[in-house]
Amino acid sequence: MNTLAKIESALPLPVTVDDILAARTRIAGAIVKTPTLISQTLSDMLGCKVYLKFENLQFTAAYKERGALNRLLQLDDASKAKGVIAASAGNHAQGLAYHGKRLGVPVTIVMPTTTPIIKVTQTRSHGATVVQFGEKFDDAYAHARELEAQQGLTFVHPFDEPDIIAGQGTVALEMLEDAPEIDTLVIPIGGGGLFSGMGTAARAMKPDIRLIGVQAELYPSMYGFMKSTDLACDGDTLAEGIAVKQPGSVTRRFVERLADDIVLVNERRLEESLSLLLQIEKTVVEGAGAAGLAALLTHRDQFAGRRVGLVLTGGNIDTRLLANVLLRDLARSGRLARLRIILQDRPGALFNVARIFDQEAVNILELSHQRIFTNLPAKGLSLDVECETRDRDHLQNLLGALRAAGYEVAPIEVA
CA–CA separation, 166 vs 259, rounded Å? Predict the structure, then answer.
């Protein structure tokens, strides 16, 4: 540990449970007290008691408005009149814009150009000025700091400020009051504001509670800091809300002191978790909101027999992206498939194949022939069939029937 790290580790943390309790009083009535409910189905599936905190039911569909409102309410009159600026991939932006409009504070938001259109549209609908700049959060952040200096605005950091951290900590107060039996919290980490606030509140209420952070494998910034390893942070993650390349200088102090561990989850687990929450709980979450469940699916042994609290941090996901995730999940489960079948190019060939699909009670959704761009003989063709089955066993029965009839057939797999 270097000298600076030793000094930081000896300093008291800048947010206490009293700050979080004060934040709760301050924001009361303007924030939804979202429910914390047991998921019996997920509990049975994962071998632990799973409690879900539905922060996707906030007005802006994310927990971020807690910290944003707590910060806005403590601005002086001059700062309120000039306005605030922030850099955000979306949820901090919406929380700040919504409550800024409500309080009469002008809000400017700098967003990466890759931000889902639903987040851009909703932020503008709350009256904020939106500037899109750069592909990553860090690009947008740097540009926002330039505009802050040029226009004399107050910068409101999405995670690395005590007032923001205190506001986010109110999530844990509510969870542990509603479900005091929770012995483990699994908290998504991007910059670390939510973990810092929740961890502070949770440890004050239950000193022996286990605190686990979770990050996307493509953006393991806080994981790398905690494990003293330098890992690449880049890529198109489903969890863009926690795609942060550099952990906060304030929040990393909280994480270092409070976290029992940080785990990583891959993109496939994030997609699976998002789909499960929609199917089982009938609730829509974005990629970051599914990260906690992805951690349980990936590291089952670590949570076996425990009483685990997960935060569904947000529900702002582009509808086209949501549709793609759901369809890919159907394909992986065998309920949706694309098969490539080699045929002879002659009358009746398609009819004979279709008859087998009918016999196996498989619904054909789409057909595509290929005669030209293929290395098959001139009298051959490939037929791609997109079809719908009941499950993977039903699909295997269809493949067996096609092969028994003499057809060369192979599924086109989803990664």
Answer: 17
